[in-house]
Amino acid sequence: MKNEWPLWEVFIRGQHGMSHRHVGSLHAPDAEMAIKNARDVYTRRNEGVSIWVVEARHIAASSPSDKGPLYEPSESKVYRHPTFFDIPDEVGAM
Amino acid sequence: MTRDEALFEFCLRMGDSTLVLGHRVSEWCGHAPVLEEDIALANTALDLIGQTQLWLGLAGEVEGKGRDADQLAFLRDAWDFRNLLLTEVPNGDFGRTLMRQFLFDAWHSVYLARLLKSSDKRIADIAEKASKEVAYHLERSADTVVALGDGTEESHQRMEAALAYLWPYVGEMFAGDAVDAAMAEAGIAPDPAGLREEYDALVGRVLAEATLEMPESRFAHKGGRNGAMHTEHLGHILTQMQWLQRAYPGASW
Amino acid sequence: MYAQMIKTAGTGVKSPEEMTEEERKFQARVDANEKIEPKDWMPDDYRATLIRQIGQHAHSEIVGQLPEGNWITRAPTLERKAILLAKVQDEAGHGLYLYCAAETLGVSRDELTEDLLSGKMKYSSIFNYPTLTWADIGAVGWLVDGAAIMNQVPLQRTSFGPYSRAMIRICKEESFHQRQGYDIMMKMARGTEAQKRMAQDAINRLWYPSLMMFGPSDKESVHSGQSMAWRIKINTNDELRQKFVDQTVPQAEYLGLTIPDENLKWNEERGHYDFSEPDWKEFFDVLKGNGPCNTDRLTARQEAWSDGKWVRDAMLAHARKKAAAKVAAE
What we know:
The complex is a heterotrimer of chains A (94), B (253) and C (330). By secondary structure, chain A is α+β, with helices and mostly antiparallel strands. Chain A is 18% helix and 21% strand.
């Protein structure tokens, strides 16, 4: 039987209240050890305050060929960005 | 023995144990069963080296003869070392190394918890920093002991053998002497004998989960903490550790 | 260079006419500096070459732990011991990041490890040289990490996303490695007579092996051409070697150490140092397994792997039992 430890994806939230961010992967026999290993491997330089791990095979990903239909429609919705609107200087900060 | 002499001894006991164990654990670097464990062991060793700098630094300060942590670590011979014998025994296989780590971490965490309330602020401060590191060491070593004890038939046998080999070195942690009495009286450090029950409960819990039987024997090898009789292994550790400082006296590195 | 003499799969750079439609699209993305991600279509040869290259890079990191690890228990002060241990630990981390990057291409870490242990895959020639004195630890940080950085910094821009991200993380962590090596060298070069001798001896032994790290000249190589077109190789070996020499000579002068090359001379016209080539016969001997430490290095890795098997198996067995018990309880 093949006995390689499963692969886990590691997400870490840094010091400043940002969202968890994918930082890399590692191997571990189970979730608890994966969190410990993530602590030892990915927070050696004070990088984080919270760790998420998820077994790599459980991650569902969008298909690269869907890139056009998925992301291009939002390109034309420029009014979603504050820079779309011209506010006169005399109104002040907004 | 004055109080400062006792305090000096106490600091050496703490610092020499972390120094020698840190040395042993660092021997794994590049040789562990899997990369993740290699990295984790290095973290443990780094914490222990850091703690050594604090304890031996304080020892030098208390002694007042101008010796710093490096001089104490690199220029004393074996009979002046005050580490627990447990820390100097060879690594053996990965299972024995982790069992030793667990038996040490369990004592270390119980002991440091008391030192947090030390009447000597310098000691309470070191304990404050070290206890956070050691809480993680204990969590990790306990989990690994459980996994290896429970894992496969082979791993179970290896962990049984490791425990049988290491158990006689546990008793020394709780054998108090005049230094301990002086420290307890001054409210600096606890009487080690009083910690045995808590230790046994903690270790017993983990060993049970690891499907390992806690040995009944209370026989204890002694002589590390008071320097009366180390194992033959310490001399070899020092031969390596102190080589450069001894071969090139006075050089700066 | 932690990846040397990587044989690029395929027949060399294809013209757009020779390419399939998919290949043309792929090459256009690479040319536009887009990152290729694991699930994207990629030529089989691109995938195969990357597995070789990233795998060899990862192997170099973990075999590279050994020569420096050789001095952890003999480091001369507590601080030096901690710094060296942290550095060698970083190499393990870098190996781990790189294996994970390779795994996104459909090969497992265990498979790569077995290929290293069987001798099928190589690691950098430099790690087959011994570290004999404490000055070697300084020289390895200064020269070997210095040479590695020359290659790794441009590789942050490589076309394969996971490789690029691993290199970014590695470069960030690695920035202290070369400095700690130079810091050791400064102490030695300004120390006692014995320390100066040690420092000079270290550079005498490690200079040419460091130059070999970049591999033989590949200006004319069709393989390199393809790897460069794919942007998994950014510079030629000669470019990087020259850059390394130009950077290192003034650093050696500052230390008062002599680089063991009588032909080393500033060439005003070229704006570069002229220098002697290393002995390439020695390089190929080392690659074939006849370096001073090849056998020891591989044996150390084989032992770690086989001695660790029961641990890996047991931890997985325990995890499976725990998971089964949890399911049964639900």
